Amino acid sequence: MRWAPERASPQTPDVGGLAIEPFVRRALEGDSPTTGEIDAFLEGRTVPIVEGTRVTILFRGSADDVRLRHWVFGLPTANSLHRIRGTELWYDVLELPEGSRVEYKFEVVRTGGSEWLRDPLNPHLARDPFGANSVIQAAGYAVPDWAVEDPSVRQGTLEERRFRSRILGGTRKVTIYRPARFRPSRSYPLLLVHDGGDYLAYAGLKTVLDNLIQRLEIPGLVAALMHPHDRMEQYRGSEAHSRYLVEELVPDLEHMLPLRTAPESRVLMGASLGAVATLSTAVRYPDTFGGLLLQSGSFAFSDIGGHGRGPVFDPIADFVNDYRRAPTAVARRIFVSCGIYESLIYENRSLVPVLERTGMNVRFVESRDGHNWENWRDRLRMGLSWLLPGPLWLVYD
Amino acid sequence: MSEASGPVSEASGPVVLLGSHPDVGDFRHQVDRFRGDGGVAWITAGRQEWEDEDGAIRDALDGEGFNLRLYARGEEVWSRDPELADAHRAHQRRLRLLRRAYNLRLQRLMDGWARMAAMVGDARVLDPEREAALDDVRRLDEHHLRRIEEARRAFEAEVHFGERDAVREIRAQLAERLDHVRVVAMAGGHVPVLLNRLRLFDMPRLLTSRTLVAWGGGTMVLARRVVLFHDSPPWGPGHAEVGEAGLGRVPGVIPLPSASRRLRLDDADRVDRMARRFEPDDCLLMDHGARAEWDGHRWTAVEAARLGEHA
Q1: d(Cα A199, Cα A194) in Å, to the nearest integer?
Q2: A394: nearest CB among B53, B75, B190
Q3: Which end of chain B has the least Cβ crowding within 10 Å, N or C?
């Protein structure tokens, strides 16, 4: 039988059966744990403490209040942690389904203000363009081995190039990924990546490509990693961006590199607004890309009334509403992924049957994760190996 | 191990099958056993554009011998004879279509067989059904193999390799180069590419009397059936496929290179189904260190575990 503490407040979590339970119980009985006991408790322990589907998060330090800030859509954020009486140890218990991955920070309130901190006790971090967050890796979640750098894997190369654009004006930076043992005498599939710099920095794209190629799960390929000049302009369905990509960048790449030119050897991908740029480009230029990889696309739409996401999304909703009214087949295969802890899950779930109605081959994968780069990283193996299957079945060294 | 199946010529030379990534010393030892005062050559066409990355073989043989460069020679043929190249691509497209059709049927049959194997009930009722399900799979495998062979014969009848200048010249060069060669080593890589190059240059005939030392995909092409396998692909159920008709140089076996890495050998039911499916052939686990030797008439040494009998 689990012990439930005397409720200090309606939100006091049930700690029965958890590692933290003796401390909570003792404190309520007036016997607060000592600093040394807390040191011993934390020594060698992985924090947050994952026990089945229950996760105990801990913060240690003086504060007036400590709030959990996470980005799980559907769960209240900014809930206060509970202080164990007579100590500077704060805790809360979350119920997280197996396989979940949650990014978070603490908002620590002290006299005169508050600051957002990463969890000092948690070694797991995820970086993004705004810095880094702490990560709860719930039971059943592990960083995929194919996303981890392996010194025994042959390394591809990266080269920064600038491409002139009459359509956009000036030049645009593109990072070219060439696979290990690149041979000019061979012809390669092309992967075009929106937000290429972020995919490299925060989703480990180079490591993922190196690993999947070495494992033969995708073929040796060339990737063109695009860096947006003005993301909010280019990636919200801009016609000029689509024209630049298809009429300038792809031909320039094909001139410069030994690329296969058949549509089935071209894949366009992006996440969030990058997924909008991907789909809108494919709609404008159907059958240019054999495969599309759409991750957590910001596919705002409205069946009636407004889309509810603010004016920034207006051009996107216009595009998505038009497409939903008259969907057309634009590629042979489309892989869609989205985290169920993001608000965009509704939009992505809604898009899938629309795409399927056109006869395109669509795969949709949901994950217990949020709108973040490591969620997108973790879906790359499934997406890329389906869109560009490697010679796994044919090669035996 | 069956010695009756497969079109093995009476006059064919010995074959040594080695486990994946053989040790230099073992490889050298096997070559030295058979070469006598003859020469040695090697085939790395399965490595495709990286065919010339053969330093390890060259070093193991102290710089003696030469690479037959079948991949590069194939590229030369395509370049000199574009009509043949187009016909080859069309043939490959037909094979890919055949493979898709085969896989559609295979998946249904394999899933049915696996579910039936797991059914609980009166064995007197179920066992004959299970056997029938297995027969369905075997019949499909043989049907597919027949269809591949038909497609290949039709392709060869269409293009007449032996009457095309580029092919004829290179075949003659190869025959001359092989004149004093006693042992030919064959590495793995892309198995259909390797098979294609071997056939393009009439290598099965040129290699008949010579000793072959093969590893990786090089072992697979020497069997009657080339079985493609991977139990944990990123997509799909991972049912092994009959991928090609091999050269039939070694009878009664299906070599499985890097088996421990590619197969879930701890899944007894899966292993048992695969072993039974390909009977009467023995599926040999050709992991690093394994060896199986055919002397042209019989198996003289098999230091490789058989699927289903491994520890």
Answers
A1: 8
A2: B190
A3: C
